[in-house]
What does this fold into?
Amino acid sequence: MRLSRPFFQLPVLFDVAHLQAEVAALPTEAWVPHPDGLPGNSAARLISVAGGETDAVHGQMSPTRWLAAMPYLRQALAGFGVVWGRSRLMRLAPGAGVPEHADINYHWHTRVRLHIPIFTWAQVRFHCDGQSVHMAAGETWIFDNWRRHHVENGASAERIHLVADTTGTAAFWQFAQGQPPPREQWRTVAWNPGINPQLLTESNQRSPVMPAAEVQLLIDDLRTELAVVTDTAEARTRAARFDLLLESFVLDWRQLCALHGVGGRARPAFLRLAGAMHEAVRPLAKGLVTRTNNANALLVLEKRVLQHLVADEVGS
It folds into this structure.
């Protein structure tokens, strides 16, 4: 999700000792390698599809057995009053890092990632769009993951953050992006043994065909971000043609939705339209990027839009 600045620290703190005790109690089997195979990166899944050992983002999200054994961490998540998507503990080995990247996938268009550091050290630095912060244990942060960012663990011990994805309520965004009071007035959320909150979790089911209004939202957002790497007359002409093809695609998609609906009927017609547009823009995409993060414009189109227009199986 695009934010007005790279980092926001939320004015709330958590009991570090309780967080650390619950994380330390996790068995070795809870930790799995990073889904992209990043060296030194591992995770323990807390909220996942059906509470299983999966990194999928489509389906009914539920707490895993690991989160079920972490009552204070559940209280921490429940206290934000939002609906949670995929959430994990992310572990970074000593000397390891997360390479610079921008999160351009469809999942991130409307979601933000909340960070609560649990085990960390002063040598751990989070970089985003030229700014760098150390997120201290028990603090709460969000950042603009559309911008380019990376993480470095320069310490001799592992770093573990709770990372939880949400679209956020209006109240959450007012709290997260509002003017915070002085730090001495921030609330520390204490462990309460008398409550067992039920978390709100996403029912993230894919529509067989993406509705026209959502396609327009995604395409319009991409069009506002289009930029050329080298400003020449030829590059500007290609960018204008690329932009026009995107606009035309939205109009044609809307017509197909009007004719067939979005329930999966005439699926091949939608796939043909998407495929034709992809082939038409491919030769125009050289040197076209997104303005904010310098990502390849064609790759953004593929990952944020084209790969999600039609579900792999009708009704999935």
